[in-house]
Amino acid sequence: MAYYGDGKGHAQQQQQQYQAYAPPQQPYYPQQPQGYAPPDPYAQPYAAPPYAPQQQQYYPPPPPDVQSSGAQKINKSPKFKDIWATILFVVHLGAIAFIFYLGLSTIIPILQKPPPTTSGTISFSAQEIGISIGIAVGVSAIFSIVYYLLIQRFTGKMITFTYFLSIIITLALAAFYIWQKVYVAGVIIGIFAILYALSYFAMRSRIPFAKVMLKTVCGITNKYPATLLAGLLGLIVSAAFNAVWILSLIGIVQRYQPKTDSRGRVTVSYETYIIVVYMLFSLYWTTQVIYNTIHVTVCGLFATYYFLGTSAAGGDVTVPVSNPTLAAAKRALTTSFGSICFGSLIIALIRTIRSLLRSAASNDAAEGNFCGAICAVCVECCLSWIESLIEYFNTYAYAQVAIYGKDFCGAAKDTWRLVKSHGIDAIINDSLISNVLSVGGFSCGFLSGVLGYVYINAANSANGVTGDAATARVIIMVVGAVLIGLAEFGLLSGVIDSGVTATFVCLAEDPVALSRTKPELYQKIAETYPAIQFGGMYA
């Protein structure tokens, strides 16, 4: 097994061996009689290498073994994996559809009634809603396009700039907490900011590799804009499900009215409690499945480009698939869907348990049971860390599912091997690139919120709305504009993030395949990350 980390030492060892066993100068035995062979201290005569010692740095790798080629590992006729998870998810959808029916049948008649006309009622005209949404969508789209062009044009500078900008934002947040006299939180956040700033000296050598990766992924996204369409469809489906879920939850609460006991506590029946918990679990599981389906689709497209795309004479890369994005989506929605449901189920269960623990901690604190509240908070905190680790792990496991059509457990095992051999490389690369995307998302949401605030303030002044009603209108519109901005930029950042993950997994699995299909891109990566020349993680 060859690891990225020992590449330089191996190259130096080869060079030393070459110098130690240089071919003898001719003539070596000028006056030996015919038929006499000079003594050879080695069992095998030395054969000069095919390249001269003065050649520089990067040598083309040997032709890949057909059995170890990543392109050969791709299952071109994959079978359905983790079918039990698909069946369970479908059954779960049937149950949640029945609950939605109960909730919507209760809330729709209430919504159809005309609202009471009382002073101070918070309301928006259709024109105000339309203009606000138009401003948020338009501004977010323009900002996302401009930011995307900046990433392509100034990739390295954007990585460095956003790295230090994230440090400044973190320090500002620490100062804000200290100013609010929340000293513990301020000190902890400040320490993290300082450590992150110091880590720059260890991570700056990886910036050139992250630059090539990010620029390459953006170029592939330009070539296949259908990946953005896939993200848009996922966003629409997720938003529709969330809207129906919220209305159904309100309807369930209206249908099974909670009661207030003698101590003023709100209580609900066990049936209602079970329904609400199940709805919460369904929300987590369904949204995870939607997000991960898009992730697997994008990873499949990038894997197809990596292994099957070939460079033409003009540098253009052609893929022998008419619509690789659609083909990847078909695999994600059919043979790999069970694996997606399996991994999403794990996250949904953890999030549901965390929600129950937060509720238990709140109830214990209200009743004066501080020991129970502290225990619940500690367990919930530990689960949040576990959830973050599993989510990060699943990101790479789903790339294995998309590339090779593996079941989730098989993908998890191979991902663990990748983490053990290349975990630090992946974390550093993701950290550098995620800074660029996170700053872009924050800026897009902030700009959308500011312009939404300006518009609704002007509308309040024009319509004579003042007091609490005006404040409520501003809060609602600004929050809505920020969410639209974050969601719209999230389409772009999600595609880029998935593309980076898939490309990294392909490089770790089989870097030689890239040298065979796209030698120019391979050379660029090798110049910034020389260890790639010494084989993949399973070599």
Distance between the first and last residues' Cα: 5 Å
Q: How is the largest sheet built, in terms of strand order? A: 1-2
Residue share in helices? over 70%
Strand portion:
under 5%
Sequence of secondary-structure elements? HHHHHHHHHEEHEEHHHHHHH
| Uncertain stretches | 1-70
Helix/strand/pairing category: mainly alpha
User: Quick one: overall form?
Assistant: globular
How many DSSP H or I helices?
17
Q: What Rg, in angstroms, do the CA atoms define? A: 29 Å
- Report the sheet with the most strands, covering strand number, pairing sense and barrel closure: 2 strands, antiparallel
Number of strands: 4
Mean pLDDT: 80
Characterization of the model:
The protein has 539 residues and is mainly alpha-helical. It is built from 17 helices and 4 strands. The protein has helices at residues 7-20, 70-73, 83-112, 126-153, 155-179, 183-198, 200-203, 207-223, 226-255, 270-308, 324-333, 337-366, 370-404, 408-463, 467-509, 511-517, 519-528; strands at residues 259-260, 266-267, 310-311, 317-318. The strands form 2 sheets. The protein has a two-stranded antiparallel sheet. A two-stranded antiparallel ribbon has the order 3-4. A hairpin with a 5-residue loop joins β3 (310-311) and β4 (317-318). It starts with 6 loop residues before the first helix and ends in an 11-residue tail after the last helix.
